[in-house]
Amino acid sequence: MEKRIPNIHAWVVPALLILLILASCVPQKKIRYFQDKTDNDTTETTFKNPRTEDYRIQVADNLFIRLMSVNDKNTTFEKWATATNIYQEEGIYLNSYSVDQDGYIEFPLIGKVKVENLTVDQIRDTLQIRVDEFVKQTTVIVKLTSFRVTMLGEFNRPGKYLVYQDKITIFEAIGMAGDLTDFARRNKALLVRMTDDGYQSFRLDLNDQAIVESDFFYLQPNDLLYVEPVRAKAFAFDNFPYAVIFTAITTMILLLNYIQ
């Protein structure tokens, strides 16, 4: 018995330490973007995803509309339907026009204008024609203000983000949220998208470079992207009680030495 005890604690302790270290590690293959699933060694890869069709306005969207005209008396710009705080998030929302359940907005002087299923450029052209009937030398500016995306889960900065452009890719949105953590399960990200019939969810593989050509490469307003953690996070240094484990190992060594 005395000969076996040294043999036991001589390999048990290092083995436990190795298992703990391995359990806390995440393989590089699980955290790399744009992986080639065919493992072909190519120096150049071409993808096609032009997304020629712009986003079409839907019910409950908000449009920021601004009219600018030249005042004949002093040739200065006269701002219509604006406020001093329009460039703040709250100001933009309060000065925007909501699309009602029938797909219309209510605009001063003109009245109701059908905007559902139209692009921002089409709405601008429609309003320009209607406004020219009342005021000459006026420029209409239309922007979509309800373009928000929500990033939840294993992001360095999860939260809701405003997008001040007409379109954004899924990787640009990930960049806004500070990139994914090392413990993010990139091969099974969940995208929740609002549709006419409600909400639909889609599983995405962010490791696969083919996502560049998918229908989900460009996000849409009110999209939610959730990335769950890998199982290895349970053994992460910031969560797992390593101090307790090391104390237990030390105690076991002392007991074995004492018995010996």
Can you offer a commentary on this structure?
The protein is an alpha+beta fold. It contains five helices and 13 strands. It has three domains: 4-24 and 240-259; 28-52 and 147-233, Outer membrane lipoprotein wza fold like; 62-144, wza like domain (wza like fold, 2-Layer Sandwich), CATH 3.30.1950.10. Helices cover 25% and strands 24% of the residues. A five-stranded mixed sheet has the order 8-7-13-10-11, covered by helices on one side. Strands 1, 2, 3 and 6 form a four-stranded antiparallel sheet that branches. Strands 4-5 form a two-stranded antiparallel ribbon. A hairpin with a 3-residue loop joins β4 (104-107) and β5.
Summarize it.
The protein is of the alpha+beta class. Helices cover 25% and strands 24% of the residues.
For this entry, give a set of tags.
260 residues; Outer membrane lipoprotein wza fold like; wza like fold; 4-stranded antiparallel beta sheet; 5 helices; 24% strand; disordered N terminus
What is the SS-derived class? Answer: alpha+beta
Instruction: Assign the CATH class of the largest domain.
Output: Alpha Beta
SSE string, helix = H, strand = E?
Answer: HEEHEEEHEEEEHEEEEH
Determine the CATH topology of the largest domain. Outer membrane lipoprotein wza fold like
Task: Summarize the main sheet.
Answer: 5 strands, mixed
Residues in β-strands, percent: 15-25%
Overall spatial form: elongated
Between the first and last Cα atoms, what is the distance in angstroms?
A: 9 Å
Number of domains: 3
Mean pLDDT: 76
Order of strands across the main sheet: 8-7-13-10-11
Unreliable stretches, pLDDT < 50, 5 or more residues?
1-5, 72-85
Number of helices: 5
CATH superfamily of the largest domain: Outer membrane lipoprotein wza domain like
Number of strands: 13
Share of residues in helices: 10-25%
Q: What's the gyration radius in Å?
A: 29 Å
